[in-house]
Each structure stands twice: as structure tokens, then as C-alpha cells.
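hey m, so remember when u said the C-alpha cells were messed up on ur end? i reran from scratch. heres the input so u can diff it against urs
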Amino acid sequence: MREGVLSKVAVVNIDQLVTLAGPARARVAEEMRELGLLSDAALLLENGRIVSVGAYADLRSRIDADTQVIDAAGRLVTPGFVDAHTHLIFAGNRAAEFEQRIGGATYQEIAAAGGGIQSTVALTRAATEDELLAQARKHRDWMLRGGTTTLESKSGYGLNRETELAQLRVMARLEDEGPVRIVPTLLAAHTVPKEMADRRGEYLEWIARELIPEVKALGLARYCDAFCDDHAFTVAELRPVLEAARRHGLGLRIHAEQFRPGTGAALGAELGAATVDHLEMVTGESLRLMKAANVQPVLLPASVFCLGREHYPPARQMIELGLPVVVATDFNPGSSPAPSMLFTMALSCIQMRMLPSEALVAATVNAAYSLGLGAEVGSLEIGKAADFVIHECADYRELAYYVAAPARPRVFVAGVEVSQ
């Protein structure tokens, strides 16, 4: 139990409660429209966990003098958002490159000129661990204020032993201090460090033979990710890295098919990855391979938006195929400086034609299952952590309808209000 957790809490006067009650797995097809809605509802919590969910009329007799009552004021209550793809830990920013892109430069052109990931690597290497923690805490708090209570965070801005480990240690420190759950992922195979540009194979061999075993032994990551695309690594280059990660007990996640088809989705299916992320250029054949292998697609529409591109992932095709779609922010200093899950949901609806119900499922319970946390968070069901948000609206559709509204939701983790 986290410090400050109250023993007995009742959340009452809920106009619309999104429970997302359902099967104990990620939701697919028509299930992504089933929100488990309750009206005039209440939640009963004990020691930070949900002990009862239902109509207020049925639960009111269980509220006694020892129960703290939280008045939802006739508003919407949902599970806390689960952001399943972020690059939370970095130093500095790339506002200058933002201006360059607006002026016409492409992501690839900026990277070829020494910008992009390499510029963030240089800043991150130069920062102390405490400086990285301070900036990451600011990013985390932005997300928390918007309703994100669990997030995945990747390394990948170190590209050497010292800084990759430092990024992962910062994630552990953030997780320890709470209140947001942090799921750590090693992404040393993000790109080749500048000093090893002519020794690509040596760099990848070092990740597979030395870094992955060390990270696993230190308990610093649950997953290993890799960036498979034209300006990063090929399928053949990444196979040994991902196979090494799997041998050492790390789950797999892959950046793939962002700029060109055939760059990693099939490999993810072959190796049994938990997720393949991006998928803007994915083909139907690769999607069918992913479905057969139970790989979840993680879609990152804010990245498409922030890069000024027009080709969004085919979310409707994925849902119709029965894939358990996840949406996430891809928060990072270059291609997606967009920490809001609400904005991500709005883009999912407007640009990828997902229904608001589907976007909400993709941002909560499906995301939780993609991180191996489906039994703990992502829905408001008995036994799960009491991570929830009281929104400034009364209907779940308004979450995507009011694009970038300056809302101030009340955010709770383990039944304790943690809004910043």
C-alpha cells in the first residue's frame, strides 16, 4: 500500500461510471465499444483497492461514519489512463528542430544533419542523474494532471552503458516516489551512436551480449524495445538483439513500419512480441500475422500529427480484424512532444476513425494488458487498484469531443487524490 492510502473510501454522485468490466484480457472487435457504463453509481474502496462497484442506491447502506466520502459532483468517472509508449527521460528539448520542420525540413533530413535523436543523446549524456530526474518529474506531472496514472517509459537517449543505465535508474526512482506507475523498457537499439557510426554491428553485439544481461541482472527493465526502420536498424540487424532479450526474460516491444512497410511487424509476430508500435505503413498481411501471434498494435497518432504527416495507422482495419488496439502518446522531444492522452484520444477519433468508446478502451484496459498489468489497472473492477479520474464532464464522448480543452480533472491513485 502506498503511503497515504485511506482505509475506507466511497466515491458517490457519479453521473456516468465507465467500469470497463469484462473479460480478463484485452478487448477486441465489438468488445471495444462495451464500456460497462453505470448511471447514478458509486465506488467503494478499501486500502487503495476497489471492493464494490454499482448503483449508489445498492451501496449506500455500506457507507458508515468511518468512510471518507468523495463527491463526484455528477461527473464522469473513468479508470486512470495507461500510456503504453513514452520516452519520458531526456534532457533539453528540440524546439529548434520543431521550427525547422515547420520551415520544410523532414525528420530524416534533420537526423542526417546531426539533429534528431543524436542531439537529444548529447544533451542527455551531459546531464546528471538528478537533472534527468527533475525534468522527468515535470513531464510525469504533466501526464498525471491529464489523468495518466500508469505509463511505460523507454531509455534510448544514452546509447552507451552509463547513460542507458542512468535513464533506467531514473525510471526506478520515479516509480519509487509515486504516484504514477512506471513500466521501464530498454531501448538502446534506438539508433547507432555517432561515435560508432561505422561500427553498427559492434554496437548491436554489445547490446545483446553485455547490456541486456546487465540490465536484466539489475532488474532495471521489464521490456526491450528496438527501432526498426530506414534511419534506424534493419530486421536482420535487430533479430539477434531481440532474441537475446527474449532469452534473458525481457518482454519485447518494437518500433516498426513507421515510414516504410516490411520493417518489423512480421518480426514482432515471429518472436512473440508483446506489442508492435507505430504501424503507419503496415500491410494487411503483417496485421494478420500479428493477430495470429497475439501481438497488440500500439498506435501513436500524435507522432503523425506532430511530424506534419498525413498517413495515420489503419485503426479501423485493425479493429475489424480483431486486433486489441492500444493508443499511446509516444511522448518524446522530437516527433511527439505531446504528453496528453486526451489529445491522443481525440486524434484517434478524428484521424483514425475510432469511436470514442474504442479510443477509451485503447487508452485504458487494452493498454494495461499490453504492459502485463491487466489484472491490476485499466478498469474499475473488484480487486483492482483504485486508480480513477473524475472528469469535468458527464459523458465519456466529451473526452474526445472537446479537443485540448484546459480541463482540470481530479486524479486518484490507490484511492488518494494526486492531482497536481
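this time it looks ok to me. The mean pLDDT is 96. if urs says something different then somethings off w ur setup not the seq
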